[in-house]
Specification:
about 15% strand; alpha/beta; single chain; about 210 residues; disordered N terminus
Length: about 210
């Protein structure tokens, strides 16, 4: 009984209605860069959460749940000798992520990404001792967010998924970013369509016939 799905009409992987499920369309990318998502427990089953989708795409990724009372987040492996761990979050002392900024590292990267709303994510670097002294990076603001499931009041605000995709575009190349952003747009469109926020004609990735009927 404890494993029963409380939302039987929702796909447990992509968090969309089963008729709108995108799991068969999700690419699987094996990259040299490792991504570790530190997701707030309140975000784990929200349709508007985007970090889970990044984890589904990236084979070399982990998702660790934080904020559960009496069940602290696993910290082992956040920093290891054979990799360079860096924190992706636009804090005041973060450096813009560029190819030039990456030249000083001679090890494969582990990209550690807090996932949650702004308030939740901003607390992570100061609450996790292993992260406090890590190099911190922010994404160049070269285009506005395409995320329309939550409102953003900060110019640097974007979905966790977008931040990861744009970061990997710098680290791994633009093709990786393009593949990730393509499936992200489809998920956003299908979510908005299911909420009657956009029309069928506005869904460039298409809506399955069984969802329309």
């Amino acid at each position: 009984m404890g494993n029963r799905n409380p939302f039987p009409n929702k796909c447990e992987q992509c968090q969309l209605r089963k008729a709108l499920c995108i799991c068969a369309m999700i690419p699987r990318l094996a990259l040299n860069t490792k991504v570790i998502l530190l997701i707030h427990h309140r975000e784990t089953h929200r349709t508007s959460n985007s970090g889970r989708l990044a984890h589904l795409i990236l084979e070399n990724s982990e998702m660790r749940v934080r904020g559960l009372k009496g069940n602290p987040m696993e910290r082992e492996g956040l920093v290891v000798p054979d990799r360079q761990s860096v924190l992706l979050f636009p804090s005041i002392n973060a450096v813009e992520l560029t190819p030039e900024a990456l030249k000083k590292f001679d090890k494969p990267l582990t990209l550690i990404v807090p996932d949650g709303n702004w308030r939740q994510a901003s607390r992570v670097p100061n609450r996790e001792p292993d992260l406090f002294s890590l190099p911190r990076f922010r994404i160049p603001i070269d285009k506005p967010t395409e995320y329309r499931l939550r409102s953003e009041t900060r110019p640097e605000g974007m979905a966790t998924f977008e931040a990861i995709a744009r970061a990997l575009g710098v680290i791994e190349g633009p093709e990786v970013q393009a593949q990730m952003e393509a499936i992200f747009r489809i998920k956003v469109e299908r979510t908005l369509w299911s909420r009657a926020k956009i029309t069928l004609a506005e869904c460039t990735g298409g809506i399955p016939k069984e969802a329309i009927c």
